[in-house]
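Retro notes
What went well: the complex prediction finally ran end to end.
Inputs used:
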Amino acid sequence: MNDSSRRTPRRQVNPRPQATDVVARMLAVVPFLIDNSPISVSEAASTFGITENDMRNIVRTLFVTGIPGDSGKGLHGDLFDFDFEMFESDDIIEMTNHIGPAETPRFSGREAAALIAGLQYMSDIVRDEERSSLDALVNKIRRGATGSPENISVRRAPIPERADPITGAITDNLQVEFSYLNAEGSLEDRRVCPIRLDVVGNTWYLRAYCHLRDSMRTFRTDRMRNVVVLSESRDHAIDPASLPDTLFDSPARDSGIVVTVELSESAISLLSDYDATMTDPAAGKVRAELTVAHLGNLRRLVALAPGAIRVVSPDFAVAEVAQWADRGASWHKIDPLTRA
Amino acid sequence: MAEEPSKVIRQFSLIHAMLASRFGLTIDEILNTVDGYRDTFDPYSEKSLAAVTKSFERDKKDVRDLGIVIQTRSPADASNDNHGVRYLIDPATYVLPADVEFSRGEIALLHVAARAWQHGSMNKEALRALNKLRSLGVEPDSSLSGVRPRISGWNGAVNEFGEILSEAGIAEFDYLKPGDVTPVTRHAAPLALIDWNGLWYLLAWDLDRDAERTFLVSRVTTVPRIVPGQRHEMPSDDYAGRLTAELEDLAAQNVARVRVVADSDADFRLSAKYGLADAQGEISIPTADLDLLADELIEFATDIEVVAPDELRTRIHKRFDVLTLSHGGTP
């Protein structure tokens, strides 16, 4: 196999920012600097989640930017100006003159659509009594946009009723207890410190410190029953922001089953939850190698898109899927009313 | 930082020049005075004029794509060329209205909402919106640090349809209707994109059929492309809201009945989503599309039985036949 053909579908190359993206960022940064000057480069950079160097570059670009004044030569009043000394020696941004509005720009129609659809999607975490304030917030975004928000929407992801108490437990720093149906199909009692609820598509996952396993675990909330919020406080302080977005650790190659699947190009995104390695593409099909903890997970994978994903090796895994599918086919050929 | 620092300075200066000008700037004034234009523009060369005028047209489009409203004023003695047209940005339409203010709790909600977009063009739009929120200098409170929603699927065909939607363009793509063997090329003007129950739907005006049609994006088999040079008038209507309501109605009218094995994975997950099983162990599942429901149910295999409709059972066993066949078995 040619090593250069290996790629993982999860990784996306971040394109370098286009000039217009940088302009958009500068338009947002300027009013903040006007309002908060003097401010250290590091604080301003962390507010916008960019590197200190990016922030310094913004300031340097502003230094050389002006508007055509009456003379057309850019006199003092027509320029951005900073305390050069403080900037160069102390890394502090002190704006001494600015042009243009000091207030934040409006949202574009698409930006407003992104915010509103995001709010819709997560609306189930907002308590009922706060629902009206959510509507008010959507209205503010609409009024703050230059165009009507585009027709893009995301339906609310409903949180399973049984898992609802967890949102409160996280806010109140309390432990929870529940019965959990594990991947092998057996019920276990778990007592955990809930850290974060991740909503992906329509599924709510709880990231929690599990006392039974003594480590961080991810639970599907729709596999929980009898969720009880305990009076004990969380005994593991973990910063929710420190958790990676990957929900499950892929099993190590030597502890799971390494399988090869063949799939059409259009089905690649279905592998995003797996740490898959793409191999030898051929005629519109791709092959991927991945490790599953047990064969049950493999059934779930092929069931995502029957016909579009096929297990090709090892032989025992192929046979297992074939037998499982055959049982499923015979089972569903029979009308339950006629089943003895 | 940027690929093209000169373009950054040019566009940034252009925006500020148009903001500062009370009566607007003519194209001559822009080319002769605004940084990034005046330093490259040679008024004695036709070629230079053409090149700079072209980059002004492109910048204007980029600036408008940022959501900035550029007004144009034509001179009273309206001659046919663009020469007398004045361009300006009204600061009042540029900045957020003074009464739009956000509390720390609202900022926290908006931060989480913006970060939900993971991929493609909507991720980019959301990050731009996020920067504007940061610009307000209001720190989010910590109330929502324990929640991390992620909107999936804004990539591939969905992303392309999104681009065509915002351009008010016409999309060309191949679409495989369920039950058909070969896809058919379709031409349609996108009106709305919605994620409903984890799947993306496109509402569009189908030009070949001269009627509105709903497409399930996962059934699109080619990368949608924009038909060059064609635009349509985008009527302002809440298409997304209407499509959502239609799908909800459809689902409410078509309810499947599925019996689950008690305490199985199917029992846990289907009852969490659709409500608890009744005394017979049956769960009612509203569905807008039997094929999609069959896709959702097959992983439960022999832990479920379809009570109604018969058509759902047929679709499920057909899927298992495909799976058996593709794994070397004989259905």
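What we learned: The first helix of chain A runs from residue 19 to 36.
What to try next: split runs per interface for comparison.
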